[in-house]
Amino acid sequence: MQPTSPVRAATRPGRGRPGRTLAVLVAMVLLAHVLLLRGLDAVGIGAAHEPGSASMSVRTIEAAPALAADEPAVPTVDGEAAPAVVLAPPPPSARVRPPRATREPSKAARTEPSAAAIPAPLTAEAVQPAAMAASQAVAADAAVPAVEVMAEVAVATTATTAATIALPSVAAAPVEAAPALPPAASQPLLPAGERPPVYRTRLPPPATLRYQVRSGFLRGTGEIRWRREGEGYGIVLEARIAGLTLLKWSSDGRIDEAGLAPTRFLDQRARRAPQAANFQRESGKVTFSGPPAEWPLYAGMQDELSWMIQLAGIAAAEPALLVDSGHITLVVVGARGEARVWNVRYAGRENVETASGTIHAVKLVRDRDGPYDRSYEIWLDPANGYLPAHVTRRNADGSSDFDILLDRVEPAS
After folding, report:
1. Does domain 195-411 match CATH 3.30.870?
2. Which of 22, 80, 101, 158 sits a CA distance of 20 to 30 A from 173?
3. Is the model more confident about 257 or about 103?
């Protein structure tokens, strides 16, 4: 006898009920899975899926009802009819799901960054080369102020640090270049028609002043050489740290009824091109070797070095100014195009301890007149022609920029 085909048995009258039961069970299981997945997604668990994972859709497979006895069968196996299987489309979604890229990450995803996003720890090998390079460059290219020395090292170290720990989610802020210094015509020193006061002077005798130089954590030595030759003068300031000359200023000119009258101020720093301010007395203006700024030339106008000797001469000639509420007004010019009106006020008498002993000094203060300006404190020694025994320059925040303290005074040879 020929064995009965399973397909043939499923189509015989009275024997199709087990097949229909199985189809119903399969449909119920699939429907339960669909409902379970939708329920999990509704409570937010689906939001923790990794981006890019394939979405799942479930289709319900429905079995066609058994053919009646009088219906023609579709021949399949051994010429017998097989039940037709219809693939039904998935039921419409109850709600529209947002794209996975815009769905809020789960708490685990927010609090646990991937290993690729965690920067490697800084090591001495990563920071030391840039810091050493900066310190070597600064040693040959910095001025006395500690701010300039520390800024160079900090910039190099910060650049290395930023390159090591930069996070991809943080955008670098644009760096804006500092505006160029405007010419004098657009930023007048004094109102039209005004002139700074002219004082009598009694200049100190020529001498060489030896100083201790302090700039932040750096310590060094310096000197001011003050010379007079007939109606001319010369002043040189040098500052050395670790045996290296970091700064050299020189002021040359003549002496007139207003005291020192500079003709040229030169600012030289290691590994930098010299900068000069030129006092053109024939044309009545001050010009510079670098920036295109110009300033009107006033009687008694000083540069960044000559003002200390000029102040000593004014204090010696007009002691009546050295009282409470007394002040001295000077116009001071730098080598990089800057010029300011200084109001130097009397601040009392203080003792200054030096390597040569205690000096009963007169203290004068120049307050800053702008948010980025620097202030000065200067202690003059009446016993040595009011020459400076101690000078401190302070930054805008009040911290010390550089400091020179008298060690000894040597008469000029």
Report:
1. no
2. 101
3. 257
